[in-house]
Amino acid sequence: MLKVRQIKVDILTDNDKALKESILKKLKIRQDELQEYTILKKSLDARDKNNINYIYEVKVKALNEDKLLNRKSNDIVLFEPKEYKAPLSGNILLKHRPVIIGSGPAGLFCALVLAENNYKPIIIERGKKVENRVEDVSLFWQKGILNPNSNVQFGEGGAGTFSDGKLNTLIKDNEGLGQKVLETFVKYGAPKEILYVNKPHIGTDLLQNIIKNMREAIIFMGGTFFFEETFEDLVIENDTLKQIKTNKQNLATDVLVLAIGHSARDTFYVLNNYLDIKSKPFAIGVRISHPQKQINENQYGKMAKYLPPADYKLTYQAQSGRGVYSFCMCPGGYVVNSSSENKALCINGMSNYKRDEENANSAIVVTIDSKDYGESPLSGIEFQRKLEHLAYEKGKGNIPTQRWEDFKNNIASQSLGNIKPIYKGNYYLTNLHEILPDYICHDLIEAIENFGHKIKGFNDNDALVSAVESRTSSPVRIKRDETLMANIKGVYPCGEGAGYAGGITSSAIDGIKVAHSIIARYRM
Question: Which residues make beta-bridge pairs with 362?
Fold first, then answer.
């Protein structure tokens, strides 16, 4: 089999026939010499807006492959698949079933891999099943009634369930774990295109059913879920885990996976009594909204009407030395109230699979570290909480929102301009300077004005900014060794909440890595 790169197909003629013809042209072979092909990657080259093409990378089976390889072309190479394999079981006998706290991407994929290898995990989730969680979230967005244990942050699927469902990641993957994640999503209901498109995404609407299907598969393989049950404490003897306590039961276990997510603040306070936890840098800022049509035209020019909703990625180094960057950009999506604590408000972005809402939105965030919030392990959490309480107060329980012109002039907005809010949850016009620290506001103004030179209209006076985007990543890291175990034997910190991932795919990959470490050490 061959891997063939840099196959160009015009966006106006993009179909199976055009792709096949382009493969034949690239390889300089006849149609009868091409036996089969499979798409490996598909991306969009829009650097020249007058000549936009899809770029394919394909796996090909053809006659006389050795002859094709002898051409010494960088675009025609031997296909070397990355095959996913779980490790062989270790030698230490597990006396009890492994327990996983949290059913976000890290917890679900850890549970799935353990279940696939007959370890029959127990999954404890403080929130509800995804189908019931959706009802709680809808009630909150419509009427402001918050369930602190079942919301945008907590419940089956984790925070990623109510997001854009982006599956791209920048982490190195030499073991085929990323492909395992994508293939798993497809197996349980995701569109097959995520296996090859650049920057794949699923969307909130499709993710919900996929998560349910994964849960049912884990149960079929011997796993057990306990929903609406909250972890409360550890029982430790001689630096070794013996038992965990929840609000409903005590569970003896040799292995505990902490896939708790970045918002499980009460759990971090409990774990700080036992585990080696450090604060870590993160970022805070606002979410900015523009018409999706404006972003499309800037990125694609006159060909925008033929292409899917455009995204962007922006970075800036402020004069203060802080980094400012776009984060979790949601084409054709919503700004959502993603609060999980009473009288505190934070926001996020969300898109459905079609990304067909009127506005694009993205977080624009500024890097911060312990110099801003203190050296103690949990000081970052308290910093987040302070801002979120201010956001709740200034927004009167709704999403605090401001026109960009008013933000620059440090005055409360009195009315909207030409851009209307596309939000999940109500909004309230106010002055975001009364929520965010001055140094954050200063760097945001400097950066967003600069971004206006990169994307026309990005700093439009009527662009909407809302706050507070405070949960970009976990503010802590739970230390673990080379076997991925914490300082307490049998405890495995995992995923975004533990400080080892950022997003759905990297969290899922970390969940698989932790499952592999458990399998390699223990046997059932």
Answer: 288
- In tens, the pLDDT along 365-417 reads 999 999 999 999 999 999 999 999 999 999 999 999 999 999 999 999 999 99
Residue 425: C-alpha distances to residues 142, 359, 410, 433, 462 (Å): 6, 15, 24, 21, 20
Q: Tokens 């197996």 label which residue?
A: 187
As a three-state string, the secondary structure of 443-495 is HHHHHHHHHHHHCCCCCCCCCEEEEEECCCCCCEEECCCCCCCCCCECEEECC
In which element (H, E) is residue 184 found? helix 177-187
Give CA–CA dist 284/287, Å, rounded.
10
> pTM for the complete prediction?
0.95
- Residue the block writes with tokens 């995204």: 311
142: Cβ–Cβ under 8 A, 6 or more apart, which residues? none
Statement: residue 191 has pLDDT above 80? yes
Characterize the bridge pairing of strands 427-429 and 231-237: unpaired
Tens of pLDDT, residue by residue over 218-263, are 999 999 999 999 999 999 999 999 999 999 999 999 999 999 999 9
Cβ contacts of 174 within 8 Å, gap of 6 or more: 82
Q: Contact 102/199 with Cβ under 8 angstroms?
A: no
C-alpha separations of 119 from 106, 223, 330 in Å = 17, 8, 37
Phi and psi angles of residue 348, each rounded to the nearest 5 degrees, phi first:
-150, 180
Within a 10 A sphere around the Cβ of 293, how many other Cβ atoms?
16
Judging by DSSP bridges, how do beta strands 476-478 and 277-279 pair with one another?
Answer: antiparallel
Asked if 182 contacts 195 with a C-beta cutoff of 8 angstroms, the reply is yes
Arithmetic mean of pLDDT over the chain: 96
Q: What is the pLDDT of residues 55-113, one digit of tens each?
A: 999 999 999 999 999 988 999 999 988 889 999 999 999 999 999 999 999 999 999 99
Instruction: Please provide the DSSP assignment of 17-80 as one string.
Output: HHHHHHHHHHHT--GGGEEEEEEEEEEEE-SSTTS-EEEEEEEEEETTHHHHHTT--TTEEE--
Give the chain's domains with CATH numbers. 2-78 (3.30.70.2700), 92-278+483-523 (3.50.50.60), 281-469 (no CATH)
- In angstroms, the Cα distances linking 270 to 44, 370, 377, 436, 484 are 47, 21, 12, 29, 20
- Helix, strand or coil, per DSSP, at residue 519: helix
Listed in sequence order, the DSSP H helices in 188-234 are 204-220
174 — pLDDT class (breaks 50, 70, 90): confident
Amino acid at 475: P
